[in-house]
Every structure is written in C-alpha cells, then in structure tokens.
Amino acid sequence: MRHMIKPLAAGVLMAALASGTALAAPIPVTWDAGASSPVLDAGVSFTQNNQIISDFSLTTISSSGAFTDTGYLPITQFQLGNSALSGTGLGTSYSMYYQFTATGQFYLNPNFTSQGFSPSAAYAQFTGVTYSLMGNTSPSATYSATISGGPTITTAGTQFTLASGSLAPAGGTGSVLSGIPAADVYLTFAAATGEGGFFTAPPPTGYLGLNLESAFTNTSGEATVASCTGGECIVVNGGGGAADFTVPEPASLALLGSGILGLGLVRRRWRNSL
C-alpha cells in the first residue's frame, strides 16, 4: 500500500480533525428493559447518558486505501454523570451490543505491515455506516475477531433488534496515530418496529436530531495487523470506549468528526470508572 497520498483530500480531512464537530453535552435517555419484545428484564427502567463499550472487529484495507470494517460492540456498563449504574440488569438478566458494517477511504498511506504502521500518522474518512442495537435475552456472550473468521458472537440467548441507524450528516473520520487506530462517528438512531416502548425518553420516533456518538480506544497490543485476502487487515479484540446521545449544533452538520468505527477509536472524553 504505497503512494496513497491525496494532498487536497488529506488537507480537508486534517482540517476537520482539527476543528471537530460542535456538539452539546450528552443528553440523558431513559430505557425500560421491561418494555422490549421479548422482555429483557421485567420492571427495570433506568436513565443513562453514557455507555462503556468493547470492540471486536475486522477491517480490510485494499491497495487503493478503501476499507471495509465489520464488528460487534458489546455494552459493558451504563453510566450517569460519570458514575456506573447498578440495577440495570445488564450482565445479570440480559446483554446488549451494537453490530455494524462501515466503509471508507484512507487518504494518507498508512503502509500497514506486520511490524506496525509507518508513517506514524494516517487519516481516513467514512463513506457509509449501518448498525443495529441488539438486545440479547442471555446475560452473557462471547465475542472474538480473526482474519480468517471475521468477528463472531457466541450466545445461548435470543437476539433481536432494538434500534438501527446509519451515517449522520456530521459524518465520521478516522486515524492511525503511532500504531493506535482511532475514530469518531455520528449516526442516526431509530427504534425498531414494536420496540418504541423500550426507549422511554426521549421517544426515538424518526430522526430526532440525535446522533449516536461512539468513541473507542485500544492499544496497539489489542490491534493486530497482518496481510490478508484483499489487502491488509486490522483485527481488534477487546478495544473499548464510549457511546452516548448528543445534539449537534446546526452549523456543525457540514463538518466531520474525528475517528474510525471499529479501528479501535481514541477519544479523550472516554469515561471508564473501572
């Protein structure tokens, strides 16, 4: 993967990384685990404004720099005001995860090799993202990702779609800095048919002007780089980060965020109380 530098596009992308997307503070949302179908946890309702998430994904990058990224983002903890919530039923009665597929383009040559990344800075932009927020009637599931098998989930529970969405106007960009992948992605959010009761407040009917903002981090030890069919691959096992709901300022909708879903994401505002 050589000579993949596109100066003009890279300059626009780097400007977006520098300016960022102007967002209001994360808003609290109330979810009712007893109102889903099937029921996740009867009588359990809670309010949260942040979700701690793990990352298990496979990214394939072609010689032209185009990439495809797929994976699972299990929710490991709900938080409110930077404090972990108890009594949500997560991990004891049910589990939840995001399942996603993303596409995009690298604009500075990351020169991926099994020894790491060179040069130390590479930037990318998303061209498309689709995802589903999944409920699982089992409190536990095992996630993994390999080059040969891709991302997988193993669970005995019933899995069903609670909500879904796609890339929002605010968009998303990515980077690989000193061997650490990163991303910021802004997504639309809509309840699945029959699941509106789960999302108590605010009710997600249509596009509410809310973006699901996800940020994930992983060290280079959690991201494995290797040659694979189709180009070079990045496998992430156990990266993590955060997801929350925010309302973008109108002027920011033409701007891009800063990061890349599934490449492991770095965000300073990641709040992890563990």
Note down, in words, how this protein is organized.
There is one protein chain. The chain is mainly beta and 274 residues long. The chain has one helix spanning 7-19; strands at 29-32, 45-48, 50-61, 66-80, 83-84, 95-106, 121-136, 142-146, 150-154, 159-177, 180-187, 190-191, 199-201, 211-217, 223-228, 231-246. It has one domain. An eight-stranded antiparallel barrel has the order 3-4-6-7-10-11-14-16. The N and C termini lie far apart (39 Å). Mean pLDDT is 74; it is low at 1-22, 113-119, 205-215 and 250-274.
Protein topology:
Elements: H1 7-19, E1 29-32, E2 45-48, E3 50-61, E4 66-80, E5 83-84, E6 95-106, E7 121-136, E8 142-146, E9 150-154, E10 159-177, E11 180-187, E12 190-191, E13 199-201, E14 211-217, E15 223-228, E16 231-246
Antiparallel strand pairs: 1-2, 1-13, 3-4, 3-16, 4-5, 4-6, 6-7, 7-10, 8-9, 10-11, 10-12, 11-14, 14-16, 15-16
Low-confidence stretches: 1-22, 113-119, 205-215, 250-274
How many angstroms separate the termini?
A: 39 Å
Net shape: globular
Backbone structural class: mainly beta
What is the domain tally?
1
Q: What is the H/E order?
A: HEEEEEEEEEEEEEEEE
Mean pLDDT rating: 74
- What strand line-up does the widest sheet have? 3-4-6-7-10-11-14-16
Entry keywords:
single chain; 274 residues; mainly beta; 5% helix; disordered N terminus; disordered C terminus
Task: Give a short overview.
The protein has one helix at 7-19, and strands at 29-32, 45-48, 50-61, 66-80, 83-84, 95-106, 121-136, 142-146, 150-154, 159-177, 180-187, 190-191, 199-201, 211-217, 223-228, 231-246. It is mainly beta and 274 residues long.
